[in-house]
Amino acid sequence: MKEEVLEKLKTLAESAKYDVSCSSSGTTRKNTPGSIGNTAGWGICHSFTEDGRCVSLLKIMLTNYCIYDCAYCINRRSNDIRRATFAVDELVELTIEFYRRNYIEGLFLSSGVINNPDYTMERMVRVIKELRTVHRFNGYIHMKSIPGASEQLVREAGLYADRLSVNIEIPTDQNLRMLAPDKNHESVFAPMLYIQQGVLESAENRQKHRSAPRFAPAGQSTQMIIGATDDSDKLILNTSAAMYQRPSMKRVYYSGYIPVNTYDNRLPALKQPPLVRENRLYQADWLMRFYGFKVDEIVDDKSPNLDLEIDPKLAWALRHPEHFPVDINKADYAQILRIPGIGVKSAKLIVVTRRYGRLNSESLKKMGISMKKAQYFITCNELAAFNVNDTSPEYVRRILTDKKTAKGKDNHQQMSFIFPD
Amino acid sequence: MNRFDFAIKSFFTAVKNRKTKQKMIIFRYDKTFAGLLTAVFDAYNRRTFPDRLLNEEELEPLFTDECYTVITDETKSDRVWQGLRKKLMTVSCNMLRYVWLSELPGSDELIFRYIRKAFDNKHSIEMNFTDDDVFKMRNLAKKVDKECMRLIELVRFQKAADDIFFATVSPDHNSLPLIIAHFTDRFADQKWIIYDIKRNYGYYYDLKTVTEMTLDSSDLFPEGKLDEKLMAADEKLFQELWKGYFKSITIKERINLKLQRQHLPERYWKYLTEKQ
Questions:
Q1: Which residue range is the domain that position A190 belongs to?
Q2: Residues of chain A neighbouring B245 (CB-CB closer than 8 A)
Q3: Is residue B3 part of a domain?
Q4: Strands A163-165 and B52-54
Q5: C-alpha distance from B25 to closest chain A C-alpha (Å)
Q6: Are the beta carbons of A349 and B129 separated by less than 8 Å?
Q7: Interface predicted TM-score of the whole assembly (ipTM), two decimals
Q8: Cα torsion for B175, B179, B184, B187, to the nearest 10°?
Q9: Number of A:B CB contacts under 8 A?
Q10: Are residues B173 and B133 part of one domain?
């Protein structure tokens, strides 16, 4: 390995960093004699960069030369940036040596498009094939599938990769065509479908014989850029909901648009990336995946965009005070999950603990359940507390968003006496 | 005094006596896990339960009424362990081990109380998180587990000239034994050493088995880093590559140092290659 690899590595990491996904979960693979490494199943983050994002995989591009000219992308053809290409053995050695030092969980391989999608895809497959077959690398591999690549190559990639992904980038076809003239939704959905078919077929075959090869065992993921177009949260979340209907789709990532190409006036001029909106979208995404919410409960025509000030679950609860208060001692798990401020872990804790005796607010606090938001939405084994229906949703909202009370400095239940002069 | 009043009176005296008779009982043991389990065995055997557990040298508190020294006995501790295995779920048995390895003062007394509660209750107490001891056990076990996770994430190997991958750690709790299985499976085809500088012991894997080891001098790794003379030829290069990569992958527009510290507490930075 030579010194000049450092420059390549820096250049190609710079180009790859805008991809959000870095998870290494979804596959469990034990070590077998003669092979390198294993895969942990729950995903391991190995470091955190100064932007607070996790580094789990070696997120890198095979090359950042690209024939496309997508407006939102740093690597677009018309940008004058430093370009580089990795040789297959360089990238393979880097991955293995980093892995052996416990720097990474595996490889996240992406690439700019050179010549044509198939040509690019074939070179990417060559890297992961060599890792898996020649070096018997057992770590995690996430590979980008290039839009427009042929079915045969996607099928081959699935044999070596744990997760495949194709990014939608822009939730509407029309806007995608505007910003990325060489892409359209059809070219994105086609490889997604190939991956889905591969996963389903492999699952079916593995029921017949255990030795049947696995195909992208950690499924597929995708990503949408937030704030580069005027698409509403309703549209974005409906797209994600439709994605999650697909059997192999594990994650939809949201990436706040970072103005990398400020000169392009098809894009909005942003001072800073829409990080709060991105966070709210992730919260909404979690509500759909783990809290049993339907997408039209989170956003509808009346409120097509998420409230940036409060989280989507609290927003839902304030729109629907008729569902509250929930009785902690009687309500079923699904209902408890809908209480603002109570997450999956707390809800489970409540359900197992209440079998030993009735819970009151004291015992909830003792169990470490955060009552800041929950207190307005529950009743427990004591005198009626002050809840959302005793006052109004507006009032609760005001208390929870007020900077002073939010930090717990001021207790709203403390009566204030004003003496007349 | 009628018969009824007399009954009340004698009951009252009995209760009163029981209160005043309560004694301060101390158990001394050798601060090993087997010793702790033997203490449980002896306590049930003697039907006296300690208020405090001390090691062999600690000073007795004032007003100690009784002091009993436990002699660690494998058969006794095994019997208690078997009893626990029957009474508790596997995950709770593991929890006992995690809390023991936390090495926090008072954790042995907590384990003792927890074991007593487990044995004395007809029904399982494991999920009764309104009970103080059960909740404390869970929290402490979670704390140690979190540290294990952090170690699994943040151990950084340096390749030495003799092809041994060397890493140093100094965890708050004695979590090293809990993560060895992970590393043995993952790095099965390379020799490695993970060394706890704080407790001065470590584990060495020689491609077949893992052995516990203690190094005589720490000159080999000043401040936890392998001496450059002992490094493999390309080790320095890979460290530079990793540092370069780590810098380049940051998105400048999203810098959020608070979030970074939240996930990557500063106390771990001293052994992180990318943070040097």
A1: 4-222
A2: 9-10, 13, 58
A3: no
A4: unpaired
A5: 30
A6: yes
A7: 0.89
A8: -110
A9: 153
A10: no
